[in-house]
Amino acid sequence: MGLLRKIFIPFVGLVLAFCFYSAREDFKPEMLKGKRVIVTGASTGIGEQMAYHLARMGAHVLITARTEAKLQKVITRCLELGAASAQYVSGSMEDEAFAEHVVKEAELLLGGLDMLILNHVGNSYFNYFDGDVGHVQKLLKINFLSYVAMTVSALPRLKDSRGSIVVVSSMAGKVGFPFTAPYSATKFALDGFFSSLRQELIIQKVDVSITLCILGFVDTESAMKAASDVVLVSPAPKEECALEIIKGGALRQREIYYKYAATKIPLLIRDWAPELLDYLIRRSYNVENLKKN
Ligand SMILES: NC(=O)c1ccc[n+]([C@@H]2O[C@H](COP(=O)([O-])OP(=O)(O)OC[C@H]3O[C@@H](n4cnc5c(N)ncnc54)[C@H](OP(=O)(O)O)[C@@H]3O)[C@@H](O)[C@H]2O)c1
């Protein structure tokens, strides 16, 4: 019976997943043409790359982050790449009112909304948890509560357009990685909230999709600076990552895993042998290289 559960059921799951995968609609860049999209945290990193992809696809992009000068540069590039329109709103997601303001601006500037891409992330440290509860609270505001606030404000417009919410999360929001305790807490919170909300929207027959994006290590400047000396894993390219997130949102997928093998296989191991995964994770760090405070 134990053997049946361990081998047969996962095998049937894999076959069903394969059938489902082959029946999926293909992504076409035209799917984003003329769509009105908000991308948060788009002054740099994966968010910036998403803005460029959306621009090439002919979308209306509204980007946001704190640093106005960087946002202006991204907007200029988006217009060069062919965006239907490109605008920005600057401010901090630590302030709930700002999160709501961004959605109101989208209504005003774009006349509605088709896709909300929640991607921004507050600065944290990559090291042993230092006991600072205030930092955890601050990060929860930026990485989690502002995502909720933007979703609440955007839902009426997304219901009108049968739109999509895309939530950028991490492997650190699915399994316990060391040295990211506050960050990890915020990403687990996203999974809980948005997976529950997705169920409620389906029960209520509300046609707004929620795509949770589970990312591995990606070569953005901030991630490389924080972790490249310690993490013994090669980072994936941010440009490709950004495209996969947009594809997942456009195809209204439940979750996307990037890169697939590097993120999905550890999760399969977790379900069978969680202690083995914990052990493998601990082995993938060069702890000697952690920054000394
Ligand atoms: N890179 C990776 O290895 C990796 C792995 C897993 C998951 N992810 C996820 O992917 C997403 C993007 O990561 P990334 O590496 O591209 O990050 P990043 O390069 O550090 O960019 C973060 C963005 O968030 C903005 N931001 C920071 N604090 C903010 C605040 N208080 N209010 C508003 N905006 C703020 C930043 O702009 P300003 O500083 O101008 O405000 C920037 O545009 C995040 O959700 C992250 O958790 C990344």
Automatic annotation (TrEMBL):
- Gene3D superfamilies under this entry? NAD(P)-binding Rossmann-like Domain
Extract one GO BP annotation from the record.
Answer: steroid catabolic process
Tell where it localizes: Endoplasmic reticulum membrane
Major place of localization?
Answer: endoplasmic reticulum
Listed GO MF terms: 11-beta-hydroxysteroid dehydrogenase (NADP+) activity; 7-beta-hydroxysteroid dehydrogenase (NADP+) activity; steroid binding
Q: Which SUPFAM superfamilies match?
A: NAD(P)-binding Rossmann-fold domains (SSF51735)
Q: Does the keyword Membrane apply?
A: yes
Fetch the InterPro entries from UniProt. Answer: 11-beta-HSD, NAD(P)-bd_dom_sf, Sc_DH/Rdtase_CS, SDR_fam
Q: What is the membrane topology listed in the Swiss-Prot or TrEMBL record?
A: Single-pass type II membrane protein
This enzyme catalyses: taurochenodeoxycholate + NADP(+) = 7-oxotaurolithocholate + NADPH + H(+); 7-oxolithocholate + NADPH + H(+) = ursodeoxycholate + NADP(+); glycochenodeoxycholate + NADP(+) = 7-oxoglycolithocholate + NADPH + H(+); tauroursodeoxycholate + NADP(+) = 7-oxotaurolithocholate + NADPH + H(+)
- E.C. designation(s): 1.1.1.146, 1.1.1.201
GO cellular component term, pick one:
endoplasmic reticulum membrane
Task: Recite the UniProt keywords alphabetically.
Answer: Endoplasmic reticulum, Membrane, Oxidoreductase, Transmembrane, Transmembrane helix
Do you know which CDD domains this protein is assigned to? Answer: 11beta-HSD1_like_SDR_c (cd05332)
Does the record's keyword annotation contain Chaperone? Answer: no
Q: How does it assemble?
A: Homodimer.
What the record says about family reads:
Belongs to the short-chain dehydrogenases/reductases (SDR) family.
User: What is this protein's name?
Assistant: 11-beta-hydroxysteroid dehydrogenase 1
- The species this protein belongs to is Chrysemys picta bellii
